[in-house]
Specification:
The complex is a heterodimer of chains A (113) and B (117). With 113 residues, chain A is mainly β. Chain A is 0% helix and 47% strand. Chain B is mainly beta and 117 residues long.
Amino acid sequence: AQKVTQAQTEISVVEKEDVTLDCVYETRDTTYYLFWYKQPPSGELVFLIRRNSFDEQNEISGRYSWNFQKSTSSFNFTITASQVVDSAVYFCAPPYGNNRLAFGKGNQVVVIP
Amino acid sequence: GAVVSQHPSRVICKSGTSVKIECRSLDFQATTMFWYRQFPKQSLMLMATSNEGSKATYEQGVEKDKFLINHASLTLSTLTVTSAHPEDSSFYICSARVIRGGQETQYFGPGTRLLVL
């Protein structure tokens, strides 16, 4: 089975602090997409970011940034200047073959006002 | 992004009945959709890959006769939980695979909460 490790089960931060979520995965694919999704209390999964495995340039999109290192199979995600609306469960989703995604256990982020 | 809808959003049924859940891509066509289930405070577990015009591909341990999947059009996949039992109570989520500008993404529906009494 696909292995995705999101080690931090629950993370609490005070509003405006930065929060970084770690993700380490295993895959047999050589080229692939990686994703981060957010699941607020309503339950719907919201697409956040996508990364191509052949592009290791780290990027910033608004308050989100990510650090992808293919050599160590890590895909870390940072929320800058957190807000209460960022409180949710965040899932890392690497490939699973045949266009499928594997989901980690998720990081519960609690932003305290 | 792309919009994926699910219907119903919530359903309560008696044990032994069958429940059909619809997953629709509203503003795009999806040859591939996926069905997941999620138990409280757990991760998403992929159940099956739904392919338009062909049989679904089920993950190991998922009973295909229990969870019937039909992907009859490019915008609709249905999951039918047959002879539902309390242990089938869960949050069922579908997603649709989208390729735009060479970039691939899965967009998710809002989910269906099933409670079997």
